[in-house]
TrEMBL record, chains A, B:
<dbReference type="Pfam" id="PF00027">
    <property type="entry name" value="cNMP_binding"/>
</dbReference>
<feature type="domain" description="HTH crp-type">
    <location>
        <begin position="146"/>
        <end position="218"/>
    </location>
</feature>
<dbReference type="InterPro" id="IPR036390">
    <property type="entry name" value="WH_DNA-bd_sf"/>
</dbReference>
<dbReference type="InterPro" id="IPR050397">
    <property type="entry name" value="Env_Response_Regulators"/>
</dbReference>
<keyword id="KW-0805">Transcription regulation</keyword>
<dbReference type="Pfam" id="PF13545">
    <property type="entry name" value="HTH_Crp_2"/>
</dbReference>
<keyword id="KW-0535">Nitrogen fixation</keyword>
<dbReference type="GO" id="GO:0003700">
    <property type="term" value="F:DNA-binding transcription factor activity"/>
</dbReference>
<keyword id="KW-0238">DNA-binding</keyword>
<dbReference type="InterPro" id="IPR036388">
    <property type="entry name" value="WH-like_DNA-bd_sf"/>
</dbReference>
<dbReference type="InterPro" id="IPR018335">
    <property type="entry name" value="Tscrpt_reg_HTH_Crp-type_CS"/>
</dbReference>
<keyword id="KW-0804">Transcription</keyword>
<protein>
    <submittedName>
        <fullName>Transcriptional regulator, Crp/Fnr family</fullName>
    </submittedName>
</protein>
<dbReference type="InterPro" id="IPR018490">
    <property type="entry name" value="cNMP-bd_dom_sf"/>
</dbReference>
<dbReference type="InterPro" id="IPR014710">
    <property type="entry name" value="RmlC-like_jellyroll"/>
</dbReference>
<dbReference type="InterPro" id="IPR000595">
    <property type="entry name" value="cNMP-bd_dom"/>
</dbReference>
<dbReference type="GO" id="GO:0005829">
    <property type="term" value="C:cytosol"/>
</dbReference>
Length: 227, 227
DNA sequence: CGGAAATTTGACTTCCGTCAATTGCTGTGG
DNA sequence: CCACAGCAATTGACGGAAGTCAAATTTCCG
């Protein structure tokens, strides 16, 4: 479904480069691309982890559900990000394409084999896992102790850092997604954004009122209490 | 300060065993023990990470602070647990002894060197980091989406698994610590425990009313909504 | 263009936090 | 051994930040 297989060597080099493998590597890995339509699942929690993914275009959410439907998004994966990297053999989140999303696939097995032989790959695997851990640790502080305004400010700062184009943040995700990431309701997120708008901390781009926000970084940073 | 250096080989073997190093390893590592008094800091956030620690006796909390004093405890480290393992060179949490606590110390540098030469050590480092990540991921769900009763139930289940002695959970930490771990106030934790007591889900051991709780596991599990 | 979906906004509720008083426990010193 | 100081925990009364429910408005997309 929505498959596009590629053996483009340029892709292979770049993708593996992220994992610390020299582009002239003669290791054989199966590498190809898939495109997922908006809203479709990439993999489910507890499914066997056969692939590791890198976002080439689009955006992905990964989340856990409680039995009654409450959802917690653990991370958004944007262009360039690698996700689906598990140490055990099972995925610990469900992931879905937020918008139409193209990913590169790397077979987990081949990655494991490369890690065995190449300590550089192994080290980068650890480094990536540590980055994820650090993000989760900071997010625990946000979820456990920050107010709604602080959470939304922190979210905008994070997205500004990760996907800004000259002061404009083209958010791919809905208010509900933001809410489930921040441990709030969509109404509370909307109210916080309105408040930030009143305070002239953020603005909205002319016609496309929703998805794009313009930032006044200085004030925003003051609203998110770090450390 | 409260130092006790040891070169006991049995300690060395056990400690390194946790990291996947054969006990007959002829690698040289500096290994010794420290005892920290109740309430004292082991290391601070942003300090250089010189050592990795293993709890030999006692209990440790690791936390982050916001500038106005709000605290989020990310994890409790109990007997046998390894903590202070960072990939970068800085600690990402402050850690303190909850009660009088003895830890084993392993020099970070020597661990890194062993990981270079031994892929088994390297793999176990990754495995431990992944375990921490998994804990943080589950805790994000708790902090973002669970009610106070669900949080306290989940906490008791976790502690039951980690430090129970035949149905009795000898909690080393205060209500405030539990609250800062669960993203609540100590009053809310106390009320939740009282509620669980009324519901005959938990009981308290005779004289020592506070620190020890007795469990009725079945009902408790029903109160914590998993997945 | 029109219906569906997303977002905003308002009114009201609720769960948890805040503040305060009380009780219970621990440890020290007379 | 007991008294008392000091801290931890419980309990109650009240308030507020965020949640719920609902309606209006805007945007999206076929």
């Amino acid at each position: 479904m929505f498959v596009r297989v590629t053996t483009d060597l340029a892709y292979r080099a770049t993708s593996l480069g992220e994992l610390g493998i020299a582009s002239d590597s003669n290791q054989k890995v199966s590498l190809n691309e898939f495109t997922y339509k908006k809203g479709t699942e990439i993999y489910g929690e507890k499914e066997p982890a056969e692939y590791v993914y890198q976002v080439k275009a689009g955006a992905v959410r990964s989340y856990k559900l409680l039995s009654d439907g409450r959802r917690q998004i653990g991370a958004f994966h944007l262009v360039g990000d690698i996700f689906g990297l598990e140490n055990g053999s099972e995925h610990r989140f469900t992931t879905e394409a937020i918008v139409s999303t193209t990913v590169r696939l790397i077979k987990r097995r081949s990655l494991e084999m490369m890690a065995e032989s190449d300590p550089m790959v192994s080290r980068n695997l650890l480094s990536m896992t540590t980055d994820n851990l650090q993000h989760a640790e900071n997010h625990m502080l946000l979820l456990g102790r920050k107010t709604s305004l602080e959470r939304v400010a922190a979210f905008l700062i994070e997205m500004d850092r990760r996907l800004t184009a000259a002061g404009v943040i083209p958010l791919p995700m809905s208010r509900r997604d933001i809410a489930d990431y921040l441990g709030l309701t969509l109404e509370t997120v909307s109210r916080a954004l309105s408040r930030l708008h009143e305070l002239d901390v953020i603005g909205f781009v002319g016609s496309d009122q929703r998805q794009i926000v313009l930032v006044n970084r200085r004030q925003l940073a003051r609203l998110d209490l770090q450390n």
